Amino acid sequence: MKKSIMKWSWIFMVLFFTLSIVDIRFGILGLLCMGTPIYLAVRGGGRVHCAKYCPRGSMFGVFLDKVSFKNNLPKFLKTKTVKNIMLVWMMGMFSISLVMAGGDFTKTAFAIVRMMTVSTLVGILMGVIFQPRSWCTVCPMGYATGLIKDGQDKAKKAKQAA
Ligand code: SF4
């Protein structure tokens, strides 16, 4: 079983933002942040990225723990409706900004950094008000990997039943 690196994987997040400030083109590395959980889920790992590797989840867990008010997350934020809205909204916004970038490398990198920054700021705000990793409840990537796993489980069951 693979070891968790959640205690220190936040370093990748800090590195990502630092490099992007130095040169916005490094923002393209954000694709790894989005692609890795999906890749691992498609390979049958389920939500392994969330449990063991995610730099963002690591950052919220490590840094916000000390400053968080640790209030309970409102129930409506845990509903499927909110998760679906977040997934569609973020993917929609991202797709639009990619189209508007028109294949330009720097503009694409900027669009990625902007999305990463906005989601990180929202995650920090949620983590301070509610539990440190509250963002993970609505995170589109985490939700998408869960959907992939559910789909795989259903396909497996259907195959066994056939
Ligand atoms: S839910 Fe999102 S932010 Fe949280 S650990 Fe998973 S991918 Fe990372």
List the helices and strands and how they pair.
Elements: H1 10-22, H2 30-45, H3 48-53, H4 55-63, H5 80-101, H6 105-129, H7 135-138, H8 140-161
The protein binds iron/sulfur cluster.
In short:
The chain is mostly helical and about 160 residues long. Helix content is about 70%, strand content about 0%.
Overall mean pLDDT score?
95
**What oligomeric state do these chains adopt?**
single chain
SSE order in H/E notation?
HHHHHHHH
Report the sheet-strand fraction.
under 5%
Count of β-strands: 0
Number of domains: 1
Overall outline: globular
Biggest pleated sheet:
none
Radius of gyration: 17 Å
Helix count equals 8
- Helix/sheet category: mainly alpha
Alpha-carbon distance between the two ends: 31 Å
Bound chemical compounds: iron/sulfur cluster
Low-confidence stretches: none
Fraction of helical residues: over 70%
Structure description:
With 162 residues, this protein is an all-alpha fold. The chain has helices spanning 10-22, 30-45, 48-53, 55-63, 80-101, 105-129, 135-138, 140-161. The protein has one domain (10-161). Helix 1 (10-22) crosses helix 4. The site of iron/sulfur cluster has 11 residues, from helix 3, helix 4, helix 7 and helix 8. Iron/sulfur cluster binds at residues 37, 49-50, 54, 56-57, 135-136, 139, 141-142.
